[in-house]
Design goal:
CATH class: Alpha Beta
Helix content: 10-25%
Shape: globular
Oligomer: single chain
Radius of gyration: 16 Å
CATH architecture: 3-Layer(aba) Sandwich
Number of domains: 1
Distance between the termini: 38 Å
Structural class: alpha/beta
Strand order of the largest sheet: 4-3-2-5-6-7
Length: 192
């Protein structure tokens, strides 16, 4: 079940480009603990291969995988539909494909954020065409207001407002991924 994040005031932000902190490091840690326990329970008999979507999911994948008390494998894909801007281009390209055969395997895609859902919808169709036993999705963040396609997401960390967020793997022009929290980026940073 997703939770509504608590939003501290702008004064709580330690970075000048962050308007406000949306999710603290502690909130993220607690929710990943809950998700990891649920995934371990759901896949107890058939551990999944975790497929992280680069680059944004690196933090989520690393922290979530340590909370799943199962023997799991990990692999990575890199797909692009953004370039260096703030809006999806709508054209998806595979930059790095899986190195693992997923035929007859349970696959759990690990995402940092789902906004329009267009890229994830394409990725789901691509992976399902490879003959896995199942394909499910776990995302730290989901923006319901931004959705352009409906996607069944089995594990959601937090539903958040349709704002431009950075930190904890999320970037703007490849910066801010290393922030330990999720914050709202000031408009003045990305609007001319």
């Amino acid at each position: 079940m997703s939770e509504t994040p608590q939003t501290p005031g702008a004064a709580d932000s330690p970075h000048a480009d962050v308007e406000r902190i949306l999710l603290s490091a502690e909130q993220i840690e607690q929710r990943l603990n809950e998700l990891g326990a649920q995934i371990a329970e759901d896949y107890a008999e058939n551990p999944p291969i975790l497929v992280g979507v680069l680059k944004g999911a690196v933090m989520v994948m690393a922290d979530l995988s340590r909370r799943i008390d199962l023997r799991t494998e990990m692999d990575w894909m890199a797909v692009s539909s953004y370039g260096s801007g703030t809006k999806s281009s709508g054209v998806v390209r595979i930059l790095k494909d899986l190195g693992t055969d997923i035929t007859d395997r349970h696959v759990l895609i690990v995402e940092d954020i789902i906004d329009s859902g267009l890229t994830l919808s394409w990725l789901l169709a691509n992976l399902r065409s490879r003959g896995p036993r199942s394909v499910e999705v776990c995302t730290l963040l989901r923006k319901p207001e931004a959705a352009r396609v409906e996607i069944d997401v089995r594990y959601v960390g937090f539903d958040i407002p349709n704002e431009f967020v950075i930190g904890y793997g999320l970037d703007f022009a490849e910066s801010y991924r290393n922030l330990p929290y999720v914050g709202v980026l000031r408009r003045s940073v990305y609007e001319d």
